[in-house]
Each structure stands twice: as structure tokens, then as C-alpha cells.
Amino acid sequence: MKIRTLLILANTISLGVILAFLTISYVQMFISTDIIILLSLITLGAGLLSFAVNLMITSPLLKSVKQMSREAGRMADGDFDVKVTEAGPQEIKELAANFNHMSSRIEGMFGELKESEKFKSELIANVSHDLRTPLSSIHSFVAALNDDIIEDPETRKRYFETILTETEKLSLLIEEVLEFSQLENRKLAWNPSPAPIDQLLIDTIQQFEQKIQEKGIEVKVEYDENLPMIPLMPVHIKRVMTNLIQNALSFSSPHTSLEIRAVTREEQMEFSVTDEGKGVPIEEQGSIFERFYRVEKSRNKEGGGSGLGLSICKEIIDLHGGEIGVESDGYSGSTFWFRIPIESSKEER
Description:
The protein is α+β, with helices and mostly antiparallel strands. It has helices at residues 3-28, 33-76, 90-146, 153-184, 197-206, 209-215, 234-250, 309-319, and strands at 193-195, 218-223, 230-232, 257-264, 268-275, 323-328, 334-341. Helix content is 58%, strand content 12%.
């Protein structure tokens, strides 16, 4: 039974009971029939007027309830972009506000779910593509070696080196996918410990000594000796430093320079790597830290990468309560940087 029907029924019963009791009272007063009829008509008129006023007052309430019922039906059909008018009595306004808040939350949750499904599809497509090339290469070289068609020792050695290189690419890709999944799902616990930036910087640069020498890169290092021990996750911050330096070296021409800085900036430690490469197009700079995003001919890894490296860096820096970015005129040279607080935030990450 509808609310309006219930209200009409309740008013009718109330009015009938009142008229019955008043009629009995009038009869017991021994007054004339004409006066009894007159008083009954007056009572009936007052009751009908009360009934009309009651319907008029409850009409906005019924309208709001109908609207919420209609919008709830749309939500049940999968349309979560719904809003109801916050009007009427205070309780109805609060109910409408809570309904709108609920619809916004549900819409946001389903948006995140769709984004997650999109990410999974992209992950499968990109990983499948990135796995296909090294696997095909490994398969070809192994098949050649297995058939004993390669007799030259130097050629066999080169084949084994290629297989080793492609295997390392596969391992790196799998490691990146697993690490990014942990970071995005917030499964990586925030567990900082005080660490010296200078030692992290030295350890990171040492990894690239051979490549620096091969390309004849001049490396300039600027370090703030007043930097204190900073609460951070050393392995992960080193991963970020490694990624930024590796990218800079990969896209630096031979016999150019590379500037690496670790300095204090407004209660934060700023790490930056400046190269003399081709630069990052201005229109690409806002998207370069998105997962699977690649800037062809500019910041892509040699031989093709997973497109997750800079996304992982961003997730790690976000976990540390910092920020990461890039500066480039789009034509010559780029500066990739990140900043993290010198003092750990007390907020849970």
C-alpha cells in the first residue's frame, strides 16, 4: 500500500471517529436537531480542511520519497550518476544528503573497479607483447644451438650472451609487474629507517661505472653535506635513483655530461638527474609517470621496456609522502627529480 493511501485512510478514520463521538455528545446535550446538524457540518468542514492541509504539507515529503525511489531504481539498473533534491523537512534533507553521498561513493567505487579491470586488460596485453619478443629470440637461438648448426665458437658465445640478455629482460619485466602490483594494492608496508643519502647515491652510481665509461659520459655530482639521516626505505629509494639514472644514461649521447644532485630544499631532500638527451615533449610530460606509458624516441628504454619503471618510481615516492616530476623544454635535455620529507610524517601511509 502506498504512503499517500495510508495517509488518506488514517485521516478518514480519524475524521469518522471524531464525527461519531461529537454526534453522540451533541445528542446527549439535548439540543435541537438543526443545531446538531449545523455543528456536525462545521465539524465535517473543519475535518476536511484539516485533511486538505495535511495533504498539502505531506506532498513535498511524498515527492522526495518518490524521487529517491526512482533514483534508487536507476542505481539498481547500473546507473550510479544520480542525485536527488535536498528539500523538505530536516530529516528528509538529511536522508537526501546521505543518499547523494552514497551514490557518489558507489559511483567512485565502480569507477575504481572499471579502472582496475582496464588495468588488468592493459597488463595482460602489454606483458604478453613484452614477453613475446624475448621469448621468440630465446627460442630461435636455443633451437639453433640445439640443432648444432652453429659451429663457430665466437658465434655460439654471442648466441649464449643474447640468451642471457633476453633472460635478464624477462626477469626484470616480471619483477616490475610484481612490484607495481604490490605498490598499487598498498600491500607494501611503510617501514622506514634512517639512512644516509650519500651512501645510497654512491652505491647507485657505482652500478653504472662500466656504462658511463663505455659512453664517455662526464658525471657531475652535487651533494649537500648537511643532509641528515633521512627516514626512508633504502632499497626502494635506491630503486628510484637507479631508474632515473639508467634512463638518463640510456638516452644520453656519447661524450655528453650528466648532472646528479642531492640537496636540501624546504625541509625536503631533492634528488635530480639532468641529461643532455633529446628531452621529453612538453605534451607528454603530464602522462610520463602513468603505468605502461611510453614516449617513443625519447624516454623509452633501450630495446623496449615494460612502461612500468616511472610508474613504480611514482608509487614509491608517494609512499614516502613526496613528489616526483620532470622538467624539459621538449627538445634538448631533461631533469627528472623527486623530493621526500627530511622528517618522516606521522600520518599513516
